[in-house]
Design a protein that fits this description.
The protein has 154 residues and is of the alpha/beta class. It has five helices and nine strands. The strands form three sheets. The protein has a five-stranded parallel beta sheet with strand order 7-6-1-8-9, sandwiched between helices. Strands 2-5 form a two-stranded antiparallel sheet. It is globular.
Length: 154
């Protein structure tokens, strides 16, 4: 019997990819340096696990918990290798497709919407773990679910 839905962001929440993350400032706004990130995607197997990854892995083994990863990453070979060999594959995965430039919050809302259209997935059963406060608020407000902010340097 399903009793809980846990939704995890990856970078800065359960995965430490800070070795390939940096920011740039454009028009006074600091944001991720996507060119640097993309140039270092091959280094995904050098990523590490953050403390919340223990809870994530425990929930993967619990048949009463449906586990979802919702990331704004474009997933490529090394990313999938890290998920499959180190992190553990979730029950469902939401990620960005190549060339998709929509905001991370919109991407995650659209990717999660079909679950909350099904009667077995109720927003009150869900908890969303996220290090981007804007994504967290947008997703939680949209679905009316509980959110947990995970402070991060990413």
């Amino acid at each position: 019997m399903l009793r809980k839905v846990s939704i995890y962001d990856m970078d800065g929440t359960i995965v430490d990819s800070s070795h390939r993350y940096r920011t740039v400032t454009a028009n006074g706004i600091q944001k991720i340096d996507l060119e640097y990130w993309r140039a270092n995607e091959y280094r995904a197997m050098d990523d590490g696990l953050l403390p919340l990854a223990d809870q994530y892995m425990d929930e993967l083994r619990d048949p009463s918990v449906y586990v979802i990863i919702a990331t704004a990453r474009v997933m490529r070979g090394p990313d999938w290798q890290f998920v499959n060999e180190i992190l553990g594959a979730p029950d469902y995965f939401v990620s960005r497709t190549e060339g998709d430039n929509q905001s991370g919050s919109t991407l995650k809302i659209k990717g999660l919407q079909k679950f909350f259209n099904l009667k077995q997935f109720k927003p009150e059963m869900a908890t969303f773990y996220e290090d981007n406060v804007h994504y967290l608020k947008a997703v939680c407000d949209h679905f009316g679910m509980r959110g947990v902010y995970i402070p991060s340097v990413q």
